[in-house]
Specification:
With about 350 residues, the protein is of the alpha/beta class. It has 11 helices and 17 strands. Bound molecules: zinc ion.
């Protein structure tokens, strides 16, 4: 099969479009003909970081089941599925409790296991979920990691309630485009930030109630003005170093912040004494479970959360697609089309409400 693979860690030039042996499904696994695979920041960290080589990236896959391993009886050949990438031992204290993300063997398809930048991928049958009716592979591939992460942080960790004021910095990221929609579907009042007029307009189209331009405005000041000085009940921060100060500064007394990523940097000097009086809670969230995935996808099945495709590139243009992600130019998900039409949509097109 054709795949985009890298044989050493480094820059975009390490991503090679080449012939690779077809994978075969083991016991309990399915072989999926990849329709489309979405990009994530984790792909960049994996390529520039560490892990076994050679490697095929791709955490977010959608495609057609073309073969079944022994015991994979829950699906049939021809099923259109999307793949949740988390895998674990299935037989430990945490796996038994539904917390397979805490399993010592927790791993993700696309991280240390070969992923979806390829014509075929194997996955445990249990990780597959039918694609909602009428949805393309390209649209379906936008969901697994980001809808799962958004659900976990708003609900499993953040305990969002109707009427909560919620700040989601960085409206255009894959997690944010789904967090904004899930928060709205949950009855929250959504504040978000972004950097251009065009992205501000797209954030409003997704349902955000207040969109702040962080380039031209002081986010904490605007949040205080808009809430009569009160601040946010909940902040979902996946940006890290660049936003921790504004995220903590935006919380109301007793507010909650969930920290789930650090794409801009990993260190923040916390003044512990200044932190006591407001009695805020900081929660960490570094992984997710299959039930987070299923809960998030239920809103998609109900039509309450829509796919947000930023742009589509053919598989062999994975380096160009990744450059767009590295530059932060996207609004929504950047997707590689594999077997599905490789027609490239306009690079800035997002599709909320379609
Ligand atoms: Zn386990």
């Amino acid at each position: 099969m054709k795949a985009v693979r890298f044989h050493e860690h480094g820059g975009l030039d390490k991503l090679i479009y080449e012939d690779v042996p077809d994978p075969t499904p083991a016991v309990g696994e399915i072989l999926v003909k990849v329709g489309a695979c979405a990009l994530n920041h984790a792909d960049i960290r994996r390529r520039t970081g560490e892990g076994p080589l050679p490697h095929i990236l791709g955490l977010d896959t959608a495609g057609e089941v073309v073969a079944l391993g022994d015991g994979a009886t829950s699906l049939k050949v021809g099923d259109r599925v999307m793949i949740y990438p988390g895998v674990s031992c299935g037989n430990c204290e945490y796996c038994d409790a539904g917390q397979h993300n805490w399993c010592a063997d927790f791993e993700m398809i696309g991280r240390r296991i070969n992923g979806g930048y390829a014509e075929y991928v194997v996955a445990p049958a249990n990780n597959a979920r039918p694609i909602p009716k009428g949805m393309s592979y390209i649209e379906a591939a936008t969901f697994p990691i980001c809808i799962t992460t958004a659900w976990r942080n708003l609900h499993t960790k953040g305990r969002v309630r109707p009427g909560d004021l919620v700040l989601i910095p960085g409206a255009g990221s894959g997690v944010s485009v789904y967090a904004i929609q899930i928060a709205k579907a949950s009855g929250a009042v959504v504040f978000t930030t972004t950097s251009t007029e065009e992205k501000m307009s797209k954030a409003r189209d997704l349902g955000a109630d207040h969109v702040i331009n962080y380039k031209t405005d002081d986010v904490v000041k605007v949040v205080r003005e808009l809430t009569d000085g009160r601040g946010m009940d909940l902040v979902i921060d996946h940006v890290g170093e660049a936003t921790w100060e504004q995220s903590l500064g935006s919380l109301r007394k007793g507010g909650r912040m969930v920290s789930l990523g650090a794409t801009t940097g990993t260190h923040y000097p916390l003044d512990i004494r200044a932190f006591y009086p407001s009695e805020v809670a900081i929660m960490a969230s570094g992984s997710h479970t299959r039930s987070d995935f299923n809960n998030g996808m239920r809103l998609v099945d109900q039509g309450r959360v829509k796919p947000v495709v930023d742009s589509v590139f053919p598989l062999k243009e994975a380096p160009q697609a990744t450059r767009r992600l590295e530059r932060g130019e996207q609004f929504g998900k950047i997707v590689l089309s594999v077997s599905e039409s490789s027609e490239v949509t306009p690079a800035t097109k997002s599709r909320p409400g379609t």
